[in-house]
Design brief:
Length: 403
């Protein structure tokens, strides 16, 4: 096949997954990539594996500061119109390329790229998560706190309705024009079908066993690790709150590996940890090898994002032989098997803290869970298997066939 890959993805799990697929698909198929200048092109660089790599320039309009912040929704609304023009031209360019199929991935502005609206080439879109504007997450933060007056203004602000109305309309139009949608988990699949009434079969992620595998290093006693962007949705405040319930003499150090960071969230988490007596270490800009070392050094990987659509972190930890203690919600329930490859609790700090102490007090149980997780990942969660499933869907879309 001749495949056109589109993405407008920042650094993170979606880009890592895309690299694994492109690297393997390029062995059998001719691939060109199309992207916007706003994407992170150097992180998990696709260019070594493709024939051509096209970057289309797009710069979002500048946002206003207080007291003119309400005008930002108009700026975003205007950006959607500008994106339509950019994507219409890009669709014509892709259609003229004679591709068999377009493999479309996240656009950081609209989630599903509105490129789909204008394409005539058959298209497959991979749902790394449901559209965030359609998902309700409650995450209270001092730096996000709104006064009752501001909340009342938000309810009647016509610019907010204008922006989100256009975004929703464009998303619906893009979904309608997409030949096939694929979900990363049953959780994402259910969210999408419930909200938009469209079925999306699941194609599982995998783990890069070349990067993530057991290393000949000793576990660091009293050391737990969590990984992810430093934002409110990753639930690091819950981890701090849980560890604070463990007596100081038995409380492990919490190490966070966070490449992407929201500065206000970092201040919030660091302040919270200091107030509660939790020793916190934040690592940034780790490459895959450095991250694999951190997984190997940790006694336990702790993971508590809010309604995470799936998450590669538990798989990577298990691939390194490190068990996972996670919150039982979202796609985490599909990768962490409670009592087999790790432990799951509800979003209750007391229950989470008790489970953490119990695991750290029983090293034989940690070893058993770690060994089971390693076997589980090697048997089920491979990028070769994931790419094979994705390839079947791409071939079916290119040939206008059902699976």
């Amino acid at each position: 096949m001749r495949i056109a890959v589109f993405h407008n993805v920042p650094s993170g799990g979606a880009k890592r997954a895309l690299l694994e697929w492109v690297r393997r698909l390029s062995l059998e198929h001719a691939i060109d990539v199309y992207s916007l200048s706003t994407a992170d092109h150097d992180y998990c660089d696709l260019r070594p594996y493709v024939a051509e790599y096209h970057i289309v320039d797009f710069t979002p309009l500048p946002l206003f500061r207080s007291p003119f912040g309400r005008l930002n929704q108009f700026q975003r609304w205007h950006d959607l119109a500008r994106l339509q023009t950019v994507y219409q031209k890009l669709a014509s360019q892709i259609d003229a390329g004679g591709y068999d199929v377009v493999f479309s991935n996240v656009c950081m502005f609209t989630f599903i790229p509105i490129l789909q609206i204008y394409l005539h080439t058959p298209t497959l879109y991979y749902l790394h998560e449901h559209f965030a504007n359609r998902v309700h997450r409650v995450m209270e933060r001092p730096y996000l706190k709104q006064t009752p007056a501001r909340q009342a203004l938000d309810r009647i602000d016509p610019l907010i309705a204008l922006y989100f109305g256009r975004l929703a309309d464009l998303q619906r139009a893009a979904v309608k024009k997409t030949n096939r949608l694929i979900a990363n988990s049953q959780f994402t699949q259910h969210q999408f079908e419930t909200d938009l009434g469209v079925q999306a079969p699941v194609v599982l992620y995998g783990v890069n066993s070349t990067d993530f595998h057991p290393l000949p290093v000793e576990k660091q006693p009293g050391h737990v690790l969590s990984v992810g962007e430093l934002s409110s949705r990753k639930g690091f405040d819950f981890l701090v709150e849980s560890l604070a319930l463990i007596p100081a003499g038995r409380r492990p150090v919490l190490r966070l590996a966070c490449n992407n960071q929201i500065p206000e969230e970092r201040v919030f988490i660091e302040t919270m940890a200091a107030q509660r007596g939790v020793v916190l270490e934040i690592l940034t800009n780790l490459n895959s090898q450095q991250l694999a070392l951190e997984y190997n050094l940790a006694q336990l990987c702790v993971y508590s994002p809010v309604q995470e659509p799936f998450g590669l972190v538990p798989l990577e930890a298990m691939a390194c032989g490190t068990p996972v203690l996670g919150v039982s919600e979202g796609g985490v329930r599909e990768s962490v098997l409670d009592g087999v490859t790790g432990r799951l609790t509800s979003r209750d700090p007391g229950l989470f803290a008790a489970a953490l102490v119990e695991l750290l007090d029983h090293p034989q149980e940690l070893r058993r869970l770690g060994e089971n997780g390693l076997t589980f990942v090697r048997e089920i969660w491979t990028w070769e298997g994931s790419t094979g499933e994705l390839e079947r869907h791409l071939l079916a879309v290119a040939g206008n066939q059902a699976i």
